[in-house]
Amino acid sequence: MTYHALDSYSVLDYLRATPSLADVLDLKAPMQAREVGDGNLNLVFIVEGAAGQSLVVKQALPYLRVAGESWPLTRERMRFETQALLKHNELAPGLAPQVYHFDDEMSLVVMENLSGLEVMRKPLVARKHFPHFADHISTFLARTLFFTSDFYLTGVEKKELQAKFINPHLCKIQEDFVFTNPFMESPENRWNPLLDAEVQAVRQNSALKLALAEMKASYMTHAEALIHSDLHTGSIMANAELTKVIDPEFAFFGPMGFDVGAVLENLVLNYLSHFAHTPDTEARHEYQAYLLNLVREIWTQFAVKFDALWVENNRGELMPAKYWAYAGGAEAFAEFRRRTLARILQDVAGFGGAKMLRRMMGIVSVWDITSISDLEQRAVAERLAIRIGSRWVMERQAITSIDDLIGIVSEEAV
C-alpha cells in the first residue's frame, strides 16, 4: 500500500484490510476511531470495536508535527520504535505495550491499547501516588540497559543489534534540541519572557557550556546500550498497579545515564511545578517529599538490580568471568562494577541537568510547567530548574551518591 496519512475514517478501512488483526479486533463488526496524538511526531488513533475490543494505531508523519511540514523527517522512525518495543517486551516483559502488527510501507504500528493507564505527567501534577513505579521503572532500566550492553553481549552480538538501530535523523533532533540550540540563538527556541536574563546568562556561561559540550560528545560517541532516548514522564503510562514505557522511536545505542537521567529530571521538574500547582504548604511538602523519595528509590533500585544482573550474567566480552578468575579477582570485579555505576550516576547528573535546562529555553517545555498560567508563578519553577540543572551538569564529577543530586534540589528549592 502506498504511504498516505490516515485519519479517523481511513484508519478503519486500513484495519479491515488487515486480516492478521482478526484475533485482536472483530474486523467485520462496527468500529470507531479517534485521533488522540498530542506528541510532536506522529498520528495516534484509538480504535474500539463493538465487543469492547480496542487497539492503538500509531503512524509516522513525514515531518516534525510540532514544527509543521517545513521541518521534514524520515518515516523510518516507526521501524525503530517497533524494533525497540519488541526488544523491550523481550527484555522487560509486561513493561511495554504489546505489538500486534507493523507496516513498514505505511510507517505504522498497531499495538495494545493502554486505556486503563494514564500518561504520568498530569496525574503527577494532580499529586497521585504510584506505589509500584520505582520498582517497575528501575527494572525496565536495569534490564534493557544491561542486556543490550557489552557487559552481557558478545562483541558480534552487540554490533549486530546496534546496526539495527542506526537512527541518525532522530539522533540529530536530540543532538540539536537537547544539547545545542537552546543554548544559542535559534529560531525555534521558546521561553517565558520573564526569563530573558536567565536565558542570556546560561548562553554566556562558559563553564556550563563546556560541560554541556562534553555531555553532547558523550551522547554522540558512547554507544553503551540500547537506550530509549526520550524517556520522560510523557513516555510512561501507569496506574496503581501497572507501568508501561511507550514511544521509543528515538531508540539507538547511546550512554546508559541518558535514560536514567531523563526519568529523574522529569520527576524534579514535576517537584518544582508544585510551587504553583499546590499552594497548600503542607500538601506541597508532602508530595514533593514523595517525589524526591521516588528519585532516590529509582536510582537505588536500578543500581542494585543492574549489579545483580551483571553478577549473574557476566557473559559479555568486555571483561568476561575468566578475566576475574584469580585470587582477589572477585573483589576486583566488584570494584569494577562499583566504578561503572558511579560513572553512570555522574552521567545521570550531566544528562539530567542538560535536559532540565533545555526544557526551560528550547523548542519544547513540559506540561507540568507550561500548565502554570501565571507567568510569574511559572518563572519561580523555571528559575529553580535552571539553577538545579546547571549545577547537576557542572558538579556532576563531584556526585558520589543519589543524595548528592537530591541535595542540590533541596538546597536550591528552599
What's this entry about, in short?
Helices cover 50% and strands 10% of the residues. It has helices at 10-16, 77-91, 121-125, 133-146, 155-163, 168-179, 196-203, 206-221, 256-277, 281-312, 329-361, 367-370, 375-394, 402-412; strands spanning 31-35, 42-49, 54-60, 99-103, 108-111, 118-119, 225-227, 236-238, 243-245, 252-254. It has a 5-stranded antiparallel β-sheet, covered by helices on one side.
* Helix-strand sequence: HEEEHEEEHHHHHHEEEEHHHHHH
Give the CA-based shape.
Answer: globular
Class of the largest domain in CATH?
Answer: Alpha Beta
Estimate percent helicity. 40-55%
What name goes with the CATH superfamily of the largest domain?
Answer: Aminoglycoside phosphotransferase (APH), C-terminal lobe
Distance N terminus to C terminus? 58 Å
Largest sheet: 5 strands, antiparallel
How large, in whole angstroms, is the Cα Rg?
22 Å
Strand content: 5-15%
The strand order across the widest sheet is 1-2-3-5-4
Number of helices, counting only DSSP H or I runs of 4 residues or more: 14
Can you give the mean pLDDT? 95
Parts with pLDDT < 50 across at least 5 consecutive residues:
none
**SS-based class:** alpha+beta
The tally of domains stands at: 2
CATH architecture of the largest domain: Alpha-Beta Complex
CATH topology group of the largest domain: Aminoglycoside 3'-phosphotransferase, Chain: A, domain 2
